[in-house]
Amino acid sequence: MEILKENIITVEDIKAEIKKTKFEVQRKDEAFDNCHDQLPFKWQVKGLKSRKDEIIEAFKDLDVFDKYIESNFESKENFEFLVMNEIKLCMEELLDGFHAVGRPMIIPCIKSGPYNKSKKQVMDLLHTRLNNHDNELPYLFDKFLVPDLLWSEELFEILAYIKEKTYKSNFLTNELRSIFIKAYVILEENLQEPEWYCCAKPLTYYRNIKSDLEEIYYDDYLPIKKLLSYIPNNSLDCYICYCPNYINETWTELQKGKVKQAIFNSFYDLLKKIS
């Protein structure tokens, strides 16, 4: 029995992993807080998004952009604080959106028939579905997150102009694309250059999660069939279902804090570089 159990991952193992991996976002947003504290209350509440199109249009002509700032926001210093505050608001909106788009939602894998054949089919199907999730990540990022990042890109370009620094176009988007894909890849075989926020594992890890695998034998009410069902790799007919609760719930929860920290670090480091 010890041999049979040695590769099984139990609920206790999963709880231990959660405890070990539990992650709290380390705040280092003094620059964000300082800019927020110096804003008039009305700007703290509404931000700049309502005037986004107007600001973007004005920024196209740098010869008159300074006059536009002074006419609408009194001074470059005031406008700088407003831009930094707006970047913070964009980041906070992105934290939840990022996770909602990337989190896995794998449907159960179900097969019936001879044990060996059915189990192999279930695991092959699981492998296919995990691969499909991983391969779809670049599309999901471009489809659902890139449009929301356009305003952040404009804000960083404007901030760089105010601070007389340079900003490489789409730098933030490219950084976050890399984080998104690496953070939400499930299979280790699909992960290139892993980072601290990655949680990809080999297929065998998921296969060995005992609580997610259900095996029901058609005739296990018969004593002899019940006994035979305990023999590994038996040929009895059965129903096998792999419900990916660990991946959809526990794995996803483990990633949530890490992803938030990685996004925050990207915004903060870029802001620090420009400021």
Please give a structural write-up:
The protein has 275 residues and is mainly alpha-helical. It contains twelve helices and three strands; from the N terminus they run H-H-H-H-H-H-H-E-H-H-H-E-H-E-H. It has one domain. It has helices spanning 2-5, 11-21, 30-37, 41-46, 52-59, 62-73, 76-102, 115-162, 171-184, 203-207, 223-228, 245-274, and strands at 109-114, 213-217, 237-242. A three-stranded antiparallel β-sheet has the order 1-3-2, covered by helices on one side. The longest helix has 48 residues, at 115-162. The protein is elongated and about 80 Å long.
What's a quick, concise take on this entry?
This protein has twelve helices and three strands; from the N terminus they run αααααααβαααβαβα.
Q: What attributes characterize this protein structure?
A:
mainly alpha; 65% helix; disordered N terminus
